[in-house]
Amino acid sequence: MKRILLIEDDPALADMLDRRLVLHGYSVDSAPSAEMALERARASMPDVILVDYALPGMNGWELVQLLRGEPRFAKVPIFAVSAHSLPSDRARARAAGCTDFFGKPVDMEALLMALRIACGPVGE
């Protein structure tokens, strides 16, 4: 089962994304902060990471840069999921090391397609 680390501080959005992803066959571990996410990523080595920009404490782009600085996360797909979706926000996400960017509200079909492309079919 493909493992997703979901980093989202809005409990309602985290719950909705978690339920939808589980419904589609993914295993989801959620973290409400960058610090907690860093700990969980290092402990569980997810197949893909979904990260919000606006997090308490360290922001999502700083977290992505830290993860990309560790060799074991160099090839892990990291998708930004953020309400900050101006072209400059998208460029900043890419510069930080994000694989792709999804604005909020999340287009689930597009996200699911990107997940299948990034980490293969759920059953593998």
What is this structure's SSE topology?
Elements: E1 3-7, H1 11-23, E2 27-31, H2 34-44, E3 48-51, H3 60-68, E4 78-82, H4 87-96, E5 100-103, H5 108-119
Parallel strand pairs: 1-2, 1-3, 3-4, 4-5
Helix pairs in contact: 2-3
Strand order of the largest sheet: 2-1-3-4-5
* Domains (count): 1
Uncertain ranges:
none
Order of helices and strands: EHEHEHEHEH
Beta strand count:
5
The percentage helix is 40-55%
Largest sheet: 5 strands, parallel
- State the CATH class: Alpha Beta
Describe this structure in words.
With about 120 residues, the chain is of the alpha/beta class. It has one domain: Rossmann fold, CATH 3.40.50. It has five helices and five strands. β1, α1 and β2 (about 25-30) form a beta-alpha-beta unit. The radius of gyration is 13 Å and the shape is globular. It starts with a strand and ends in a 5-residue tail after the last helix.
Identify the notable features of this structure and list them briefly.
single chain; 124 residues; alpha/beta; Rossmann fold; 5 strands; 44% helix; globular
In short:
By secondary structure, the protein is α/β, with parallel strands linked by helices. The protein contains five helices and five strands.
